[in-house]
Amino acid sequence: MKTKVSDFIGSAVIEISAESIYFIIIGRDDDIDMFINKISRHDKHYLSIPMNIPIANECDNLQNIYNKTITIDSSTEAAQFYAVSEGYFDGFYMIMTMKNNKIDFPKIIINDSFKGSARSAIISWIKKNYGSMPKNINIKPLTIVGLDENILVYVAALD
Questions:
Q1: Mean pLDDT over all residues of the chain?
Q2: Distance (Å, rounded) from C-alpha 76 to C-alpha 57?
Q3: Which domain covers residue 31, as residue numbers?
């Protein structure tokens, strides 16, 4: 189901149709490790992955570590590319999830009950899973990716 998501970019309101939202939580190594420690749950395994390593390469490394097939999709790789093009690479890490042998970014599904902006949905997810909203986080839209579905991509940078 496609739902229109409105968000502010500068002074313009942009409406797009998307099925889900990726938000790439980015920061320095210590900040990302601290964030993961606060959000870790049993249903998902969170990973800290260097921004300057392509996700496909990291997927190969994880397959060797866990001795099982781990998958990613092209939308995940494209989302990383856009985050790197924003200047987040050397010295930055990103949080990814691993569930059912698939690595992905944290994702919010947009359905008929979705209300509000993508930014407010990301803030709600962070508050729910982290316990509060970090003061040093900057959330901004990046792009839309996806072949099979439209995925709105945001960066949540821990500065």
A1: 85
A2: 13
A3: 3-158
